[in-house]
Amino acid sequence: MRPRSWPGTRLAGVLTIDQATYDAIVAHAKRDHPDEACGIVAGPEGSDRPERFVEMVNAAGSPTFYEFDSTDLLQLYKEMDARDEEPVIVYHSHTATEAYPSRTDIGLASEPNAHYVLVSTRVHGNNEGPVEFRSYRIVDGEVTEEDVTVVSALP
Amino acid sequence: MAIEVKIPTILRTYTGGEKAVSAEGATLSALIDDLEANHAGIKDRLIDNGDLRRFVNVYVNDEDVRFIGGLEAELKDGDAVVILPAVAGGAR
Q1: Hey, is the C-beta of A85 within 8 angstroms of any chain B C-beta?
Q2: ipTM of the prediction greater than 0.90, yes or no
Q3: Which CATH class for the A20-151 domain?
Q4: Within an 8 Å CB–CB cutoff, is residue A64 touching chain B?
Q5: Within chain A, how many helices (H) and strands (E) appear?
Q6: With 70 as the cut, is the pLDDT of residue B34 above it?
Q7: For A37-63, how does the pLDDT look when each residue is reduced to its tens digit (9 = 90+)?
Q8: Do the chains contact at A67 and B82, CB–CB below 8 Å?
Q9: pLDDT-based confidence at B50, cuts 50/70/90?
Q10: Which of A45, A151, B43, B46 has a Cα-to-Cα distance from B55 of 20 to 30 A?
Q11: Which residues of B touch A97 (CB under 8 A)?
């Protein structure tokens, strides 16, 4: 049923993520359900290595919207700047719908180098159980899904 | 009068890849006009219908300009301006 490929969707590229970071994203999404959870995983600029997990507060506190608090956002970017990092992953959860970027997600995506990770908690909510965990590039309104490879540790 | 303006990744296409540029202006509005004069097209990405776009954050010396007058926020020599697109979205 899920529209795996909307018009303009291609499957290409890959997100390589370590198990601990993957688990941390899933745990955050489950904990904040039914509100959307959000955050980033930073890594050295240009490295494509998601190394530093940073959970953010959803200032919208909403089941259908997320937004980093503006003060937190500035703090986060100053910190990354000082460490020569960039957001390698920008993640958030959908709590009642599939893990596919909404029109809002696509319209507001502003990190062309990031992997946009979406987790859907719609099946198990706060409880144990598998989630949908999918990754996309979103550039100039175009969505490209990519494979997710979970490794025990980044190479 | 020189004010350093930090440019986010997504707007660096307008600054030839530069992460920060120098600009002038006594208010944020004037500063954005000065940016536009040197980096054509950038103003439209910051302003919509005469107002700062809802999902663009601008900070002057670490203060969100929405709390210090928005486009009329006053600037002086040596101020540091940071532009950051909101990180936002959701199923809605």
Answers
A1: no
A2: yes
A3: alpha beta
A4: yes
A5: 3, 8
A6: yes
A7: 999 999 999 999 999 999 999 999 999
A8: no
A9: very high
A10: A45
A11: 91
